[in-house]
Design goal:
The chain is an alpha/beta fold. It has twelve helices and eight strands. Helix 1 (2-11) runs antiparallel to helix 2 and helix 5 packs across helix 6.
């Protein structure tokens, strides 16, 4: 993880040698696996008593969205939304957590443009990303509103979901979410990796990520008037040493969610990778919103 962090930090440094920088970025793409193959998924669940099912539903005439599900569909619904880049497998470890799937019907999606939801066909609109999730919730036939869990770029997506489809959502768990437009950096390297021919030299999921992140500031700005419409419980889990999504995003959530009960968990010495380093925090947040016993004091 230290090597990956060092390379990421390199990308945020003012360029002095574009060749070296491009090499660092391409090396980064070889260090990180953003999704598991079908074979890896099969092997991961070998020997498991409960295994996920896989589904695709039409969003419109041109797009479908893919998701994995586990747990009885008669249970309350929890939907996981990954960051950028990523896939449903960002939350695969939660699909082996019997504490969760015995209390909830878990769904983890491939966001539009990633995984099996039209890989390469970018969708930068937060509203249309939320609309796709709304389609899944309707298809799931949930007997109750969903708890949405969003990491990184998944944070603003689930917030938009609560703004645009309030009848579908009972709670939000925002994990290191990029939600404050003023904290979105104008990163010098993004136009470079989006240009010809570099765009075609990087993995397609990184290309999609770059093309959805570049307009994110404008999308977040459009959402500003709608934060006051959110009236459901919101838990924000934020690392204090997150160099990818500044900790100030948690303070922004507290300021903007004027009509919602908000619980802010600031985690000392924690970086951006909370779903992998501290999945227990996400589990506790979900169980508490489900009304199950959980830790009340997070330190």
């Amino acid at each position: 993880m230290n090597l990956k962090s060092d390379i990421r930090n390199t990308l945020h440094t003012k360029p002095t040698n574009l060749v070296l920088t491009a090499f660092s970025f391409l090396f980064l793409t070889q260090c990180i696996s953003f999704r598991k193959t079908d074979q890896e998924i099969t092997e991961y669940f070998q020997g498991s008593l409960v295994r996920p099912s896989f589904h695709s539903v039409k969003v419109d005439s041109n797009r479908t969205i893919h998701y994995a599900a586990i747990g009885a569909d008669s249970l309350p619904l929890v939907v996981f939304v990954h960051g950028s880049p990523g896939s449903w497998t960002a939350f695969i470890d939660f699909f082996k957590d019997s504490t969760l799937y015995n209390h909830a019907h878990l769904i983890s999606i491939d966001r539009l443009g990633f995984g099996k939801s039209g890989l390469g066909k970018v969708e930068s609109s937060m509203h249309r990303q939320a609309q796709a999730i709304a389609t899944i919730i309707m298809a799931a036939g949930a007997s109750s509103k969903a708890i949405l869990v969003g990491h990184s770029m998944g944070g603003p997506v689930i917030a938009r979901q609560a703004m645009d489809f309030p009848g579908q959502v009972r709670g939000l768990v925002v994990v290191a979410g990029s939600i404050d437009p003023d904290l979105e950096k104008k990163e010098w390297f993004r136009p470079i990796i989006g240009s010809f021919p570099i765009r075609y030299l990087i993995p397609v999921n990184l290309d999609v990520s770059n093309r959805e992140i570049r307009p994110l500031k404008g999308e977040l700005t459009q959402m500003l008037p709608f934060w006051k419409s959110i009236r459901i419980p919101v838990t924000v889990i934020q690392g204090e040493v997150d160099h990818l999504v500044p900790p100030g995003n948690a303070a922004f959530a507290k300021k903007m969610l004027v009509n919602a009960p908000v619980n802010i968990w600031m985690i000392p010495e924690m970086n951006h990778f909370i779903p992998w380093r501290r999945p227990d925090l996400i589990r506790i947040a979900i169980l508490e919103q489900l009304g199950q016993p959980g830790a009340k004091d997070i330190k």
